Amino acid sequence: MSLIKQDDRITVDTFLEGIWRENPVFVMMLGMCPVLAVTNSAVNALAMGLATAFVLVASSLLVSLFRNLIPSEVRIATYIVIISTFVTIVDYTMQALSQEVYNALGAFIQLIVVNCIILGRAEACASRNKPLKSMVNAAGMGLGFTLALLCLGVVREILGSGSLFGLPLFGEQFQPWVVMVLPPGGFLVLGGWLLFFEWLKTRKQSLAEGVTHG
Amino acid sequence: MGSTDSITFIFFNAFLANNFVLAMFLGLCPFLGVSGKLNTAVPMGLATSFVMLVSSVCAYFLNELLVAFNIEYLRLISYIVVIASAVQLVEMTLKKLSPALFRALGIYLPLITTNCAILGLALFQTFKEYNFMQSLAYALGAGAGFILALLLMAGLRERLDLAKLPSVTQGAALSLILGGLLSLAFMGFAGLGAE
Description:
Chain A has 214 residues and is mainly alpha-helical. In chain A, 64% of the residues lie in helices and 2% in strands. Chain A contains eight helices and two strands, in the order αααααααββα. In chain A, a hairpin with a 2-residue loop joins β1 (163-164) and β2. The longest helix of chain A is centred in the last third of the chain and has 31 residues, at 131-161. Chain A starts with 11 loop residues before the first helix and ends with a helix. Chain B has eight helices and no strands. The A-B interface holds A 29-30, 32-34, 36-37, 76-77, 80-81, 84-85, 87-88, 91-92, 107, 110-111, 113-116, 119, 179, 182-188, 190-191, 194-195, 198-199, 202 and B 22-29, 32, 73, 76-77, 80-81, 84, 111, 113-116, 119-120, 123-124, 127, 167-169, 171-174, 176-177, 179-181, 183-184, 187.
């Protein structure tokens, strides 16, 4: 344990930082593989986001409960075993709930194990904080991840198949922009979102400078 | 054995048509993280491919064992342990042989464990029920494809360092758009025979 006293208070920020300021996808660029691979429709994106959020919250709780028992030399291995246990649970649950979504997500459900967000949270937050705080933080991160996946899934589904959550949006004569649901679309849409956020940031900075100088 | 099961087909399928990075989105973290310079991209690609080969062979025999004892639900946990050990092996070898390279790769070396391309490879070869030779061809193809993608990306990014760009496009956004264009180009290989 570190000598610096940990801040045990749970603030709104504990929850909100995962959604905006430290959004795992748009700011920290973690867990990119599922972000690009399963967001070809909004439903898939939502299912993947919720599955990851569940694993994130559950493993944060367990890691946090055992944080004083796990020897630091084997901590990464222990975290991975904990995480893969929950992923196995999610895998079987998903298969029982909806075979269709399970087939669409394919191996990416099992690949949640190697999602760096989860291991990153276990290492950076859950291993140092009390269970409740880690869970709140993990829930924020999970929600932030789900929102980011939805951002991509919605854009790609609207452009690529002209529908949203499976409901057609445009008339008969709509020509879908097929490349958006194919692999290149994932890279391009995420690149576009990042450009947009970067532009917002630069704009905010230049506005702030304008105020101080003016 | 149909034409889709032949060893050359599996190799080229994993190498080009279904390139792990550009068509299946596996292993994007090192793809975006280490592809800044050619002289770190090459060893990183080689190290990852080696781990792929080792873990593919181990995963094949492990799966035989799991099936024999009827405990397939332990597959995920046992695969990840095998991969972590293989990475540890590579790390120790590299530290001994070339400390400079070891430092250059930094945090990305232990992170090969959480590279989804490797676990993905082990899982896909199990789902597709490949035999030993087929698994080997699949691992070699995937490794070669990973090196190819990493090299292309590093080459492009080295050239772009010299270009004048608007300040908003610097960083990850640019790499992603480059990746998108590369992926678009790789879609041309789909005619070689996708699944």
